[in-house]
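Quick one, C-alpha cells below:
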C-alpha cells in the first residue's frame, strides 16, 4: 500500500514538473507573439503615416488616385477570398459525403 502511494506521488510530481515546463514554454511563446504583434502594429502605423504623407505631398487628386487604387485592390482581394471560401465549402461537403458514404458501407 505504501509503495503504491509512493508511485502515485512520484507520478503526480512528474506531471507537475511537466505542466510547469509547458506553462513556461507557453509564457515564452506568448511573449514572443506579443512582440511580433507589436512589430506588426508598428508597421501598419508607419504604412498609414506614409500613405497619409504621400497623399498630402502629391495633392488631393493623386491621393484620390492612390486611394481608389487601394480600394480596387482590396475589392479584388475580397473577391478572391470569397472564391477561396466557396471552394473550401465545396471541399468540406465533398469530404463529408465521402465520410458518410464510407461509414454506411
Amino acid at each position: 500500500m505504501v509503495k503504491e502511494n509512493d508511485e502515485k506521488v512520484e507520478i503526480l510530481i512528474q506531471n507537475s514538473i511537466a505542466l510547469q515546463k509547458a506553462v513556461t514554454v507557453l509564457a515564452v511563446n506568448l511573449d514572443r507573439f506579443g512582440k511580433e504583434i507589436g512589430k506588426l502594429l508598428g508597421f501598419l502605423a508607419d504604412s498609414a503615416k506614409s500613405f497619409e504623407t504621400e497623399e498630402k505631398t502629391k495633392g488631393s487628386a493623386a491621393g484620390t488616385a492612390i486611394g481608389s487604387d487601394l480600394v480596387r485592390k482590396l475589392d479584388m482581394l475580397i473577391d478572391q477570398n470569397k472564391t477561396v471560401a466557396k471552394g473550401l465549402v465545396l471541399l468540406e461537403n465533398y469530404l463529408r459525403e465521402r465520410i458518410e458514404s464510407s461509414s454506411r458501407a
